[in-house]
Write a structure and sequence with these properties.
MFS_2, transmembrane helix, mainly alpha, Growth Hormone, Chain: A
Length: about 475
Amino acid sequence: MESLKQELHETKNTTTVRTPKLKMMEKLTFGLGDFGANYSWTFIASFITIYMTDTVGISAGIIGTIILLARVFDGVSDIFMGTIIDNTNSRWGKARPWVFMTAPILGILTFMLFNVPSGFGQTGKITYVFIVYFLISVIFYTANNVAYSSLTSFMTTDEKDRVSLGSIRFIFANIAVLSISSFTTVLVDNFGGGQQGWTITAAIYGLLCAVPLMITGWFVKERNVAEKKNEKQKTSFIPIIKVLFANKYFVLAIILYLLWYLRQTETGVRIYYATYIFENPNVMGILSTASLLPLIIGLFFAPQIVGMYGLRKSVNAGLMVSVVGSGFMMIFSENLTGLVVATVINALGLVLLQAGLSAIVADVGDLVYWQSGVPVQGSVFSLTSAGMKIGQGLTAALVGWALQFGGYIANSAIQPESATFAIKAMFIYFPLLMIVLMIITVAAMNYEKFMPRIRQEILEGRVGEDRDKSIM
């Protein structure tokens, strides 16, 4: 009890200070949260289309449109959630209570999405899916994920710890993604297939979503809570938006997040690629392993590489490797062994960007605070999260639209050539274009050399009009 009181006292009285190095146990506890989050988000992103088309009987085009509409609202709700976090003042801190409280609801809604009532007519089914998906995407996952992501900034000011948190977070995330991709179809089949199989699998995944997130929300600590420059300073929605969009690095961070998630059309179409290119749905597990295992291993080494060469140079060098891997994927698109090797190369190239994404956003939050004096730790993550959600919405919609435009026939063993091309385009060609655009975006983010002096000024309370404007 005394330790809890002490923790609450520390949280309540935090300011922008140089924080102590994080212990590995707390880093792991933080990372566990992304393991849980993916048992909602990746499960949905990877399997909602094939579940709805092949089990519920809703067309891929309608599902893609539902997802896109919800994600547009989702992007807006992200922005409001960031403002809510920045204005939250609880004894637990700003972000932690949102992570903890929304987790069980998110797990329940995930279960409900994969249990569309069979007694509903077509209109009723579409309405049900839209409402449940809307609640997940626009409200509860938004509240949970924006709060969780912003913990990277609230927990520490140390650059290496931020990269380490990003690496550990995505190690857990990729373990979850790999497990979901490899075992979901197996679980569904073993639990009886059809709706029964999806029901039991979704119940397990709902628990795996809620419990880890609740552990993260309960046990991590917030130590770096930026204070207002003065008590009259406005931290409502409109002033924060103006401050953020006045900063070019913030805009670039949103673009980077958008491109990163647009690249992931390969995730949404992977089950189709395995089923209709290699004529074996279980090949999805092989492709998922080739894509995710190199990321998991590489993330252990990412903080050391970034520490040696710097974040920007490391990330762009990795993306160039990914371009090479994508080129080999095109060459070996129908050769499983060659495609697996090419996918491994592609994945290794993406390691450093995935590790550095959260650190980039936290840095941008510091930079905006230094320039404006307005605390934006929650809002900066909410708007990049909006880029993520819109990107994921477009990704799911693009997969659905591409399949529909290509003439995909649900449950047909033989697909038209146009459908096969659409599957390949979403798996290889479109992601390659996004990687090229990410290289250009990262090259423009040249703030890194200024950050040591900026952080020192923040420590000294020299922010807003009191900052040294000659630094940038």
